[in-house]
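Limitations
The structure tokens in this dataset are predictions for the assembled complex, not deposited experimental models. Users should treat interface geometry with appropriate caution, especially where small molecules or nucleic acid strands are included. An illustrative entry is reproduced here so readers can see what is and is not provided.
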Amino acid sequence: MKMQARAALVRVTEVLGEAAVRRDSATLAMYGADMTENAPGQPEAVLRVANLEQLTAVVGLAGAAGIALTPRVAGTNLGGLTIPSRGGWVLDLTAMNRIVKLDVDDMVAVVEPGVTFQQLKDELDRHPRKLTIGFPLSPPDTSVMANCLLDGLGNLSLRHGVMGEWINGLEVVRADGSLLRTGSWALGVPPFARAPLPDLTGLFVSMQGATGLVSKLAVQLWPSPNLRERSFAFFGDLAGAMRAIRELPGLDVLDDCGALTWPTGKMLLGVAHPRERDPAEPEVFLYLDIGAYDRELLRAKQATLRRYFAGLRADGVKVEDPIDIPTLVRLDPRLGKFAEFPTRLDFLLDHPDGGLTWVGTYGPMSQFRDGAARGTALMVEHGFAPTIVARPMKGGHFGVLRFIEVFERKSDAARAQVLALNQKLADMALELGFVMYKTPGWAVARYQSKLDPGFKRLLGEVKQLLDPTGMMNPGRWGLG
Amino acid sequence: MVKVRVLEPERMSLPGLMLQGILERARSAPSSRLRGEVLVDADGAQVTLRFGDQLVEITRAPAVRPVAVVRGTLRALLDAALGRGRVRAWLAGRLSVRGGPLTLLRLLGALRV
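Predicted assembly:
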């Protein structure tokens, strides 16, 4: 370690306290890796940062000493985004977990990076006015801020789009240690929206921490319906399910909708390595979520859905009416994983093979059927169960198509095999117009030659402007 | 308590896996007099239930000489397990059963959560 870096570490230890600075090999190894196939990194220290003052001090010290900073909360993203590609300090932000403000009248929450989905839900549940946030299919202890900043999705994304769009404003620690606020917040008024000021929030969304460290997020909340019915419909084949995924948003009765192929269902029911499908069994489970203000509206929506499914059957699609989840739970409690959110999909996260990765993409719904079919073929060809999740987003303007793999994380051969598959899946997806979100470094490398030159140039200039020394999560988007 | 074992779970169909859950949670253990193979056909996906001494095995291997056959849509089978609309499903042709009356009675008891 260079003398300057050593001195910075001494100084940062004075600022944070010894207990908050970890350099033991077990901690460095844990923070240097994740559950994906991405190669581990080698951080020089892990710093547990507890508040804004500490964060600005750390950024100032790192900047002066030329030390790379990688922010991290749960570390469960599947893009390898918290792996420190160029060493330096990993900032564990889990202790920055204050819900700074919950404004139920204006339906906005201001949260620090460590606030989790479960924490926010618990807080929202305490208020008489029922509000909610969209919950991703990631564990309850994942960061609300991280999912918003990385343009992730949640179970309200069919109605409201990616969670990056729900950001009303940000407070950011810049590379020089200064602070800035975006959205209406920039005028000192509550963060009610990003409009009508110039939208600088976008400089920090999907940038993977490469332009600044966000210390506060103002995020939109949504009314929670009084009544909710979640159900599953079993589809005989992928084509029928993909048709439904495209058409269902047009009914305007669903809050959420997602297709899961047969391996997911079998893993949910305890099969670690589903290998074979009986051609006569359902190929896809369609998850459906209806919310309503009162029972009359709920019944009307249920009736619309039943008519839609009857129409599908009349057209020869092999599907029966949806079965509500409480009924399925009576048959097998393991099916309750989709009953309440946030939820922990332990059959994936705690898989005995230890590795979990994906090619998660956003793209045009007109290409869903082809994308799912070609992805299935590629996965089978490479010896993987075709585990696919597809969901319409933002009223059906686009959708998410994910190809998920579990693999033996400790095996180099398995990691290489899954990376080769993921690269093929990403290439195939891009051909059809699907772009990876929470984009891993290997995918960014593949996108480089295809990026619009003007976009690429401006991206580099933005990075240079906001992070001239390249200390902020270097390597992301091929920058720094 | 009866033990339920899925043979070759990595090859087992969804109806077979759901039958495992149903048998494990059934209101009553299968009668000791229920013995032999039962063929269950859910929309064409066939599984065999082998009732033995304190053990039920679920397999995709075909039943050789089944003591009972239950056929139906997956939905009708699940409804039947919940005690819902068996007669209506049977009348509508969505559920059919074949076998000796006593065997069927014992079987339906073992498949009712």
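Some entries come with short summary sentences. For this one: The beta strands of chain B are 3-6, 36-42, 45-51, 55-59, 68-72, 95-99.
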